[in-house]
Amino acid sequence: MSLVDLAPQEALKTFFGFDEFKGEQEHAIQSVLDGRDTFVIMPTGGGKSMCYQLPALMMDGVALVISPLIALMKNQVDAIRGHHEDRRVAHFLNSSLSKSDAEQVKRDVAEGWTKLLYVAPESLTKAENIAFLRSVRISFVAVDEAHCISEWGHDFRPEYRRIKPIVKDIANVPIMALTATATPKVQLDIQKNLDMTDAVVLKSSFNRDNLFYEVRPKKDALQQIVRHCLQHAGKSGIVYCLSRKRVEQIAETLRVNGVKALAYHAGMDSNQRSKIQDQFLMQDVDVIVATIAFGMGIDKPDVRFVMHYDMPKSLESYYQETGRAGRDGGEGHCIAFYSHKDIDKLEKFLQGKPIAEQEVGMQLLQEVMAYAETATSRRKFLLHYFGEEFDEENGPGAKNCDNTQNPPTLEDRQEDAHLVLSAVLEHKNKHRMVFYTALLTATKNRQMEDYGAVESAFWGRGEQEGLDHWQGIFRQLVVLNYLRKEVETYGVLHLTDKGMAFLSNPQPLMLAKQRDFSETDAGDSLVQTRGSAGGVLDPKLRDLLTVLRKEVSAEKELPPYVIFQDVSLDEMATHYPTTPDELLRITGVGSGKAAKYGAPFLALIAEHVEAEGIEKSEAMLVRSSAAKSKHKVTIIQLLDRKLGLTDIAAGIHGNRDMVLDEIEKIVGAGTKLNLDHILKESLDEECLEELFDFFSESEDDGLASALEEFDDAYSEEELRLAKIKFMSEVAH
Q: Same domain, yes or no, for 385 and 265?
């Protein structure tokens, strides 16, 4: 094996222009150059790619890089080509290539131009590709995102299990495995599966000291996300959700509130996803709202915040996703919203899966819960999970989390700890936390009955406290190393030496009081965003606004409610909007109304705020997108085809009242609609003229007065149709 006549550091300068390696990079590169199997564990942003890119450029032959995502391959290839004069130096071989493009790639590899060839695991299994790779000189094989091999990893992919036998069939060369997230269990799984138990293992610290970790109860989460994005306008951020529907909803709400945001999920085609990635990288978009499909391999160094609307299914996922913040060493704020109800949903997703998969999934979820609910240093907790010790007092970034900056209330829980540890000892280290919490609280279930737990001396000993309390005690004792959770046996608890010493000689033990995560957003539909941003109605301002509305309506010769509805005045008198942007966050105020009527109202509010010495709340009113019609496009199309209410109702799988509700929303948002063909069925021009006269003189915007005025002359549906037509033609 002949090498370019350069030392690794010289090669680094020559190929990439860097003077120094980061962390364990040089050791990893030298290990591959020496022909050793090498296992590289580095956090996101730690420079894993360099560990295989540089030796590939230095060695004879082509390095085979197995990568899970097409987008990741493209980014990596583009990056390498940017450092090399010949674009043939790097290629990818996957399903996105046409047959002719794939043949060109193979020619470049065969002729020796290509030093790095990226392949998907699926492409690696094809017989023609295996035959081709056997015909060329392979320098080494790099398995990127190697955690995909392990069922205990956060992104398990069965096809990764087939890598080793295929590679062995192709060439007898060193293997390099690389991952940014690997617990001790996952590390062992990777090494066993790739048959590299004698590999050089290089593990960098998982501590990202510039990241601030924070967990908040999931209450008014959407409002908090919108405010955070507005307060950090122009900064890049990612918001993660578990469902595509939620991704679309939150992205839309952010846009309505003036945030440059786009949705991203696996339901989009590859071209669309690629375009969105490019817009984010080029800073045309500030915030991406995404499922976990977004981010793997995305190298954007200046992401300033990562928010989790939903907690992920594992701590490894959480670590990797938060790791996309602050990769340039600058600030990175990681905020997660958490509730017990969300965990319940995730547990339900596991139902129906094989028992082994359920057990693994439940164990991973327990770790997520423990992290979210811990009252100790979140950094220490995360690093402990990855098998790394951390000094929570003086370690790098020690104060960079919510629990260390605002420490929770501590209480002496010596007696509780003694009870818990005694129960574990009595039952011979045989059970998981769920068994002991049920035992202490006298919770009857099948497991308790099968075991005969009622006969235990510990049955009901902690009944007065409840499950949540004891779960908190157990989790803290695990983090503090009084108990050890045995991962191999799905979370069975064992007493540690420290725990045994405590039982022998009990001492005061200060544990944190647990926070309440039982509540979640009342409006899972995201409707709750309006009117709850803080503040109470200012009756003096409300009266002034009413008088002004009357004056403007007289000047414009329009009813007062056409200028602004009562709900709009209520919100103005609560939230004191003094700028056009703030006014647009008020219910019922679109850009058209703001431009036509807004100026005198803003001036009045500003004058009132100054005269009364009012300090506006920092809380911003979040504009909801929930009032938008879900069927707008369909209804407009059906109206253009001159269909009646019954046919339109069938088209949106609803009834006539529902159609009218939707049409009112569409007109209220500023879109004019032609309803003449529907109105003609029951209302002639004379009737419409009579009704228009009434609505133009009416002081209220409801139908009650119209129904009272016309008694049984018109139906409620006819009055609603006439009112909609009036608003469409007069108010806009």
A: yes
223: CATH: 3.40.50.300
Query: Which CATH number covers residue 652?
Result: 1.10.10.1390
Residues 638 and 544 in one domain: no
Q: Tell which residue, 395, 408, 655, 642, has the closest CA to residue 516.
A: 408
The 10 Å Cβ neighbour count of residue 428 is 9
pLDDT of residue 526: 34
Global pTM value: 0.62
At 580, which amino acid appears?
P
Q: Which of 405, 420, 448 is the last residue of a domain?
A: 405
Q: Name the phi and psi angles at 266, rounded to 5.
A: -70, -10
pLDDT of residue 527: 31
Phi and psi dihedrals of 514, rounded to 5? Answer: -75, 145
| Claim to verify: residue 606 and residue 643 sit in the same structural domain | no
User: Can you list the residues of the chain whose pLDDT is less than 70?
Assistant: 1-5, 45, 71, 151-155, 293-299, 479, 487-490, 516, 518-536, 617-630, 668-670, 699-704, 711-712, 730-732
Four-residue CA torsion sign, 180, 477, 308, 264: positive
304, 400: one domain: yes
Q: Are 363 and 490 in contact (CB under 8 A)?
A: yes
What was the pLDDT predicted at 87? 86
Helix spans in 411-533 (H): 414-426, 433-440, 446-451, 467-479, 497-504
The values of phi and psi at residue 179, to 5°, are -155, 155
Per-residue pLDDT of 677-714, as tens digits, reads 888 877 888 888 888 878 777 766 666 677 777 766 78
Give bridge partners of residue 511 from the DSSP assignment: 411
Q: How far is CA 125 from CA 132, 155, 340, 655, in A?
A: 12, 20, 42, 53
Q: How far is residue 65's CA from residue 177's CA, in Å, rounded to a whole number?
A: 10
Torsion angle of C-alpha atoms 221, 225, 230, 231, degrees rounded to 10: 80
For 446-500, the pLDDT digits (tens) are 888 888 888 899 999 998 888 888 988 987 888 678 998 775 566 788 899 999 9
- Compute the distance between CA of residue 418 and CA of residue 422 in angstroms, rounded to an integer: 6
First-to-last alpha carbon distance for the chain, in angstroms, is 77
Collapsing DSSP to helix, strand or coil, 494 comes out as strand
Say whether both 566 and 431 belong to one domain. no
CB-based contacts of 199: which residues, under 8 Å, 6+ apart? 36, 37, 38, 39, 175, 177, 191
pLDDT score for 630: 59
